[in-house]
Design goal:
By secondary structure, this protein is of the alpha/beta class. It has helices at 15-26, 39-53, 67-81, 104-132, 153-172, 191-204, 208-216, 228-239, and strands at residues 6-9, 30-34, 57-60, 86-89, 135-140, 178-185, 188-189, 226-227, 250-253. The strands form 2 sheets. Strands 3-2-1-4-5-6-9 form a 7-stranded parallel β-sheet, with helices on both faces. The chain has a two-stranded parallel sheet with strand order 7-8.
Length: 260
């Protein structure tokens, strides 16, 4: 079903985004990677993915806080592959601070990358999807698209915005063969999260096990991280035929966090 389709995944040079890109490549999709990082490492990952899955994999380093670069990313994907069939909006950043101390430039950047970029990629991808009569848009949101936590005003605002635009665009394209859904993970076990645990343990004077159970997974009743592979699997499911009539949904993957 997905073999030969093209998937554009933002923020896909590492972590969740790279896992989602690999999941689609395993289904036979051609991939447009996007994100930041060491150029040699990105090229090695791109070439390895292409070889492992026998699909075409391209890369574009667009800064998604810049509308002109977003437009170039979508145009390049269309020029390279002929179309963008599957759009996965994953790129994002985080900053934690009380609202009175929150740096304005950090707030603006989080809103631009975590929310506004998704609006721009969708507005640019939808015309081609309408023309094809088929498309899948998957926004990687967060448990924070459903609930709030203190000191994350920008991130929570952006993710709630992504939830709203997911529902709105889903209604607009519902009769064009296009579905729009969001995945809302809690804490996901990524190399970045793993690397932060020792520093957090030292700064708080607690064990690494306590950091995992009492800090990171405090609000996740399962006391288990969501995995990158699980997020990738959910994305593939939402793009597949079993999910043809699922649209405008916010798919929780948070170990029961938002059920409380």
């Amino acid at each position: 079903m997905l073999k030969g389709k093209t998937a554009l995944v933002t923020g896909s040079t590492s972590g969740i985004g790279q896992g989602v890109a690999r999941a689609f490549a395993a289904q036979g999709c051609n991939i447009m990677l996007n994100g930041f990082g060491d150029a040699d490492e990105i090229e090695a990952a791109r070439a390895a993915m292409e070889k492992e899955f026998s699909v075409k994999v391209a890369y574009h380093g667009a800064d998604l806080t810049d509308v002109a670069q977003i437009e170039d990313l979508l145009q390049t994907a269309a020029d390279t592959f002929g179309t963008v069939d599957i759009l996965v909006n994953n790129a994002g950043i985080q900053h934690v601070a009380p609202i009175e101390d929150f740096p304005v430039e950090k707030y603006d950047k989080i809103i631009a990358l975590n929310m506004n970029a998704s609006w721009h990629t969708m507005r640019l991808a939808v015309p081609g999807m309408k023309k094809a009569g088929w498309g899948r848009i998957i926004n990687i949101a967060s448990a924070h698209a459903l609930i709030a936590s203190p000191f994350k005003s920008a991130y929570v605002t952006a993710k709630h915005g992504v939830a709203g635009m997911t529902k709105t665009v889903a209604l607009e394209v519902a009769q064009h063969g296009i579905t729009v859904n969001a995945i809302c993970p809690g804490y996901v076990w990524t190399p970045l999260v793993e690397a932060q645990i020792p520093d957090t343990a030292r700064s708080r004077g607690i064990s690494e096990e306590a950091v995992i159970n009492d800090v990171l997974l405090l609000n996740q009743p399962t006391k288990a991280f969501t995995t990158i592979e699980q997020v990738g699997g959910m994305a593939v499911f939402l793009a597949g035929p079993a999910a043809d009539n699922i649209t405008g949904s916010l798919q929780s993957m948070d170990g029961g966090w938002s059920a409380q």
